[in-house]
């Protein structure tokens, strides 16, 4: 009973839900991959992609995939941090935002090493290196844009373009993930696994933030 009251008081229901759903879905994806259940899905999606490829669409997805690159995310992270410091935003939120992203990169690399899945056969329409499962672009964009989305929603402040910003933050991880499959550098199952792993880590970040807020309030 005390645990339930503590969870409710510190607003941990959503973080726990996101983390639990993300972890369960990722474990399911990992099991399906290890048992070669996803091969049919991956091959089917590759066939669909081959039918819709067009030169102009390739250029569009090449541009979109840059929004999930390590270079772009690190740069955007530094810019957001600098702006946050200049605007005198709460140091706690800036710190957690950076820790979530850094730990996300580490988690991504560890997972790739554990599964060691080779990428789809060439030719590719984009660039990539390292192992394939889970998709790093999908994981990091879900984590990066997802945590920003959480901060925007949690502020509760209504301003012009807020709804459009929320829609963009939701769509970006989806589009970046689709771009990786379209460009041939990832299987569909890699992207799905990256998305759910990112959701799980967003939940962890939300939980850490709520716990820090609760601790801060308890000392006041």
Describe the structure.
- The chain is an all-alpha fold and 220 residues long.
- It contains nine helices and no strands.
- It has helices at residues 2-9, 13-34, 39-52, 55-65, 70-86, 91-115, 136-155, 162-182, 188-218.
- It is globular, with a radius of gyration of 19 Å.
- The relative contact order is 0.19.
Classify the beta-strand content into a percent band.
Answer: under 5%
The shape, in one word, is globular
Question: Kindly state the mean pLDDT as a whole number?
Answer: 85
Query: How do the helices and strands follow one another from N- to C-terminus?
Result: HHHHHHHHH
The low-pLDDT segments are 1-7, 215-220
Number of DSSP strand runs: 0
Cα separation of the termini: 25 Å
Radius of gyration: 19 Å
Number of helices: 9
Question: Can you describe this structure in just a few lines?
Answer:
With 220 residues, this protein is mainly α. The chain contains nine helices and no strands. The chain starts with a helix and ends with a helix.
Record the SSE blueprint:
Elements: H1 2-9, H2 13-34, H3 39-52, H4 55-65, H5 70-86, H6 91-115, H7 136-155, H8 162-182, H9 188-218
List descriptors:
220 residues, mainly alpha, 9 helices, 77% helix, disordered C terminus
């Amino acid at each position: 009973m005390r645990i339930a009251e503590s969870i409710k008081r510190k607003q941990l229901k959503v973080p726990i839900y996101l983390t639990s759903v993300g972890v369960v879905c990722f474990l399911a994806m990992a099991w399906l991959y290890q048992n070669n259940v996803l091969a049919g899905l991956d091959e089917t999606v590759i066939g669909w992609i081959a039918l819709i490829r067009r030169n102009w669409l390739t250029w569009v997805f090449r541009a979109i995939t840059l929004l999930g690159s390590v270079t772009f995310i690190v740069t955007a992270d530094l810019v957001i941090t600098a702006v946050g410091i200049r605007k005198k935003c709460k140091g706690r939120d800036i710190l957690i935002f950076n820790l979530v992203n850094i730990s996300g990169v580490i988690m991504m690399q560890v997972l790739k090493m554990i599964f060691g899945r080779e990428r789809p056969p060439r030719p590719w329409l984009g660039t990539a290196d390292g192992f394939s499962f889970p998709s790093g672009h999908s994981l990091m964009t879900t984590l990066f844009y997802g945590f920003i989305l959480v901060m925007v929603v949690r502020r509760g402040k209504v301003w012009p373009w807020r709804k459009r910003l929320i829609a963009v933050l939701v769509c970006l991880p989806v589009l970046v993930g689709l771009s990786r499959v379209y460009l041939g550098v990832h299987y569909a199952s890699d992207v799905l696994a990256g998305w759910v792993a990112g959701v799980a880590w967003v939940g962890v970040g939300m939980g850490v933030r709520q716990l820090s807020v609760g601790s801060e309030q308890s000392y006041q």
